[in-house]
Design brief:
14 helices, 390 residues
């Protein structure tokens, strides 16, 4: 009797075990088919995205907006210079504030905030003071004119600023170097009164305002800068190698040819700041020399600004036709692939989350062009190995 009960119990257990096994096999088969279907669906979507990206031009909405706004800005600026030059100061100030806020947020996130203590930003404050605090003081204007059309404007050529309409960082660099020269151009040649722009009866520019006082202001700024960076925040900066300053960028991050020249001749890394200060002082002095003649000639001033604008356009053309057309779609392709991998773990991610070797090379080339507006003293983040002190 007990044997029969055990046999019946075993049969029941075997029956249910077999049934469970079949149900599991059926569920596994359905799950596998569903997983394969999901993989195929995601693979199909990824292929469609890649096909769309590989069909130039493929521009993100933000790039389209930035391109449109940048081009509109150039057109409106030209209209104001030709038809309403007295509005240029307001136009400049209205754009300066939001651009500086955007750049500050960007630089803080990148630990580049100390680049915003450089001389080009100090010059923006001087222009604002001349335009809105001392608008009728001709001597203040003459000093600001010298700085805006001297070291600040020449920085466009030296640091290879480029008009790239879809890139806010590059446009901001052009703005802080070019707009002060345009504002002082309109105030100099289309003033409401000559008394507001000329301290001399014949509207000549004395060397004290063209050279001596601007150099004095540069030295004043340099002392404040060194005090803040080397002493007040020196320990904090030294404790974090990711925080960039002009000297660190020039000597360590991307060694500049000038630093390499001195380094080969025995200059120690501790002398990087001294080298930077010396070179910047020589640059400031040399670029202030022609300002007197620019101030006294409308045609010379016009030709000078035209050449600077052509330089911006030429650098932008080099970017678009030599680098941008070959790398932009590949960069976007990689971004979409990584985004899909992050959202959908079923799709096999790239090994180690890294890009393929050919994509890495393309991104490296794209990064080289990004440096054309980098926060470096000798080429304005991400332009040359020195921060944009101009």
């Amino acid at each position: 009797m007990e044997v029969e009960i055990l046999r019946d119990f075993k049969e029941v257990v075997d029956y249910h075990r077999h049934r469970i096994w079949k149900l599991r096999e059926t569920a596994s088969s359905k799950l596998s088919r569903k997983r394969d279907a999901m993989k195929e669906s995601l693979r199909s979507k990824q292929q469609r995205l890649e096909q769309k990206i590989n069909t130039p031009p493929f521009l993100r909405t933000s790039d389209k907006v930035a391109f449109t706004v940048g081009l509109a800005f150039v057109c409106i600026t030209e209209f104001l210079i030709l038809r309403q030059p007295s509005w240029m100061s307001l136009w400049y100030a209205g754009w300066l504030i939001p651009l500086m806020i955007a750049r500050y947020v960007q630089y803080v996130n990148s630990k580049f905030q100390y680049f915003m203590l450089d001389f080009c930003y100090f010059a923006q404050l001087l222009l604002l003071a001349s335009s809105f605090v001392f608008p009728s003081n001709s001597r203040v204007f003459e000093v600001v004119f010298a700085i805006s059309n001297g070291p600040l404007a020449v920085g466009i050529v030296m640091w290879r600023n480029s008009i790239v309409f879809h890139d806010l960082d590059k446009l901001t660099s052009v703005f802080i170097h070019m707009l002060p020269a345009l504002v002082t151009f309109t105030r100099r040649w289309y003033p409401s009164s000559l008394e507001y722009v000329c301290s001399e009866s014949d509207c000549s520019l004395r060397w004290i305002y063209a050279l001596a006082i601007p150099i004095g202001l540069y030295v004043f700024w340099q002392i404040l800068y060194l005090f803040q960076v080397e002493y007040v925040d020196g320990d904090w900066i030294n404790s974090d190698e990711d925080i960039m300053t002009s000297a660190r960028w020039m000597s360590s991050k991307r060694p500049h040819p000038i630093w390499v020249f001195f380094h080969k001749r025995g200059a120690h890394i501790s002398k990087a700041t001294m080298v930077l200060v010396s070179v910047q002082f020589a640059y400031t002095f040399l670029t202030l020399l022609p300002v007197k003649f620019i101030f006294e000639s409308f045609w010379l001033h016009s030709a000078y600004l035209s050449l600077l604008f052509i330089a911006c356009v030429w650098n932008g053309a080099n970017f678009y036709f030599e680098i941008f057309t070959e790398t932009y779609t590949k960069r976007l392709k990689r971004q979409v692939r990584l985004a899909i991998n992050r959202r959908d773990p079923i799709v096999k991610p790239l090994p180690g989350g890294k890009m393929e070797e050919d994509d890495a090379g393309d991104m490296d080339e794209f990064g080289k062009m990004d440096e054309l507006d980098s926060p470096a003293a000798f080429q304005t983040p991400p332009q040359s190995p020195i921060s944009p002190r101009y």
